[in-house]
Amino acid sequence: MKSPIPPRETLTVEFKSDQKKLSDRDLIEAITCLANTDGGELWLGVEDDGTATGLHPEHRHLNGLGGLVAARTSPSLTVQVETLTIENIEVARIQVPQAKGEVATTNGVYLRRRLKPDGTPECVPMMPHDRTSRASTFGLVDVSAQPVAGSTLQDFDPLERERLRQCIQTYGGDRILLELDDADLDGALGLTARQPDGSRIPTLTGLLLIGRETALRDLVPTHEFAFQVMAQQAVHFNEFRRFPLLKALDWLETNFRPYNPEEELQVGLFRVPVPKVDMSAFREAIANALIHRDYHERAAVHVRLEDESLVISNPGGLVDGVTLANLLTTEPRPRNPRLADAMKRIGLVERSGRGIDSIYRGLLRFGRPAPNYSQTDSKTVFLRLSTDAADLEFLKLVVAEENRQGKSLPIDSLIALAALHETKRLSAEELATYIQRDILQARKTLEFLNEIGLVQAHGITRSRTYTLAPTVYQAAGQKAEYTRQIGFSNLQNEQFVLNYAAQHGQIKRSDVMDLCRLTKDQASKLLQKLKQQGRLNQHGMRRATFYTKVD
Prior knowledge:
With 551 residues, the protein is of the alpha+beta class. The protein contains 19 helices and 22 strands. It is flat, with a radius of gyration of 30 Å.
């Protein structure tokens, strides 16, 4: 029987030996350490190598451990304790939840867990900036709205202020802002914070948007970004900068354009640009990385063009409540709300806060794979945008339909078409995973595409599947592909029916409908076809009809 003890210690797994009786203080500190990171499990009576050596006699009765933890932590922490017997050795598994705020021992000790360079975990003190950083991850404090100690209004750059006003005009920002004088503009965007004596000093948002580069270097030393071009493992471009954000976005776009060739595709009367990377997706992804990064971490935002993708990474990980499984559907939760709001009002990011839709659209409408966040961890967000060659036939299909409707296709529809393009056949249950929504919404999306003729439905409502419509394959010059897809399904259905009849002795039309996901007429036609081929015998009439396999 496999041991329930994890194979090794990790960020969320801690082993503690109890042979010499682990002290209450060490136990409480280890638990708060887990709670202040990602939560996890503490195994009491287990050595560092994962060997179970058992509980000390005084720890054999653990009924009061939960109360001890609650009494010795502030705010009180609730843990779950269970005793397990492994090869006649008793150990305790203490399940520790992730704390939303910081938890201290009643001795005033704050600890957090981290990985050492060799990959093993350790507990270290939580510094003040660690606590503030953690609070911003949970949305408990907005660091970007805080005044920056030591800064003055002289740290604002007049040229960057003028750039801000130009951005509002260029990107369609809140034009009311253009009517304000400098002091009122600073107040409206949260670039300054009023002090008790009535004076104003720059906030982090203010310095990041219109601060002088020297002020940023001295007062916000964690702010840095890099643009790198790596082709066949050779470095073609590699520069680090500390520009204020508006200048940073201009600089990154200017330096990226020479590496972003563009061709044109004629669709009817329209010429459609086909870039290596969609610039709307590029801008949104870069802006997101700069806005949502953790400004307590000494690490740069990296923008790296590789042979097959553009990789954008920013320090800080995803904020609380946002996961890889709900990126498309969760409500916006910016790590730096004041900065995010200012960028929206300037017009540089999506006003709705749904900028990720723009990133998805910028890839999917060109027939490229969806954005890839799979390398994201608790410390860093990684976004990979494919630079594969565009699928021009798929793009023609999307552009033609959008021109016909006079509006963009919904993002869920684009995801569905891309998934069908890749997998050939989908059910509503399968699409629900792609669009991160429930089955009802997935079915609604597929039925919409079915109604406008881009998708063909197969089978009854409860268990129907979908393929791209034959007209889509025909438009793409892939008639044979559609024929193979449907023909293969038909052969599968025939074999399903014959196997069912052989195993159960008989088969009815209702069985075929459930088994093959077919309508009543489709099931009848399939049974009659197999009967005419001499592979099934028919028995009975009307509702009593059933079929048996010919030996």
